[in-house]
Design a protein that fits this description.
Helices cover 56% and strands 11% of the residues. The chain contains eight helices and five strands. Helix 3 crosses helix 8, helix 4 runs parallel beside helix 6 and helix 6 runs parallel beside helix 7.
């Protein structure tokens, strides 16, 4: 009888132990998942067709390629959101910026102004709009990395120079990291651009991500990981 009672006593103890262990494992897994979600860094890629990836598949646009690059290079907790819109001007971007900020990005890569320049819009107005966009993004809690742009000389040397100078000036005066020229290494290369000579191919975007965007983004991520 004593042996029987002992055996009966042991069974529920074992079940309780298993239940407790399972519960603890579940709680640990949930805690780890929650921690991973909280640690996730959201990058908003904001701009025009160069950001949207006009003419290439979605996975070949620079935001998707940037996310893949970051995941492969030790930043698995980063999500890159494509908020590019073909034909977008700096003024149009201001009109929709509150809507895209609903994703609450930690940092925004802002690349805008090319369509303004192609239409010959006033350079001072372009600069004012970009400054306002940076201010709005910051007030919403997003840091900013500014993508610099350049244009062809067909609009006149004075306009081209004035346009090119607005990006480094804004970056310096507003203290934001600058990608000096978003299309560096790809612009004017027929093998890396589509037939329009403006929008990069998938291979062109790979170079842009690797050589121009990723260095600025990884520097930002490394600095903020150490904060």
């Amino acid at each position: 009888m004593a042996l029987l009672l002992t055996a009966c006593d042991d069974t529920p103890t074992t079940d309780n132990t298993r239940t407790t262990t399972t519960t603890e494992s579940t709680q640990t897994a949930l805690a780890q998942e929650q921690q991973a979600q909280q640690a996730q860094t959201i990058i908003l890629a904001l701009g025009d067709s160069l950001t949207e990836g006009l003419g290439v598949d979605k996975e070949n646009a620079y935001p998707a390629q940037l996310q893949a690059y970051l995941h492969e290079h030790g930043y698995p907790d980063v999500e890159v959101i494509n908020a590019g819109l073909s034909g977008e001007t700096s003024n149009g971007l201001l009109n929709r910026i509150d809507w895209v900020l609903q994703r609450k990005p930690d940092v925004t890569i802002l690349t805008i102004g090319a369509n303004d320049a192609m239409r010959g819009l006033d350079v001072s107005n372009i600069e004012t709009n970009i400054r306002q966009a940076i201010t709005t993004l910051r007030e919403a809690g997003s840091d900013v990395i500014l993508g610099g742009m350049q244009i062809y000389d067909n609009l006149g040397r004075e306009y081209v120079n004035a346009y090119r100078e607005i990006y480094p000036r804004i970056a310096e005066e507003m203290d934001v990291p600058l990608i000096p020229f978003f299309l560096d290494g790809v612009a004017a290369d027929p093998s890396l651009n589509q037939q329009d000579g403006i929008h990069p191919t998938a291979e062109g975007y790979t170079i842009i991500v690797r050589d121009n965007i990723a260095p600025a983004v990884t520097q930002y991520l490394d600095q903020h990981r150490h904060d």
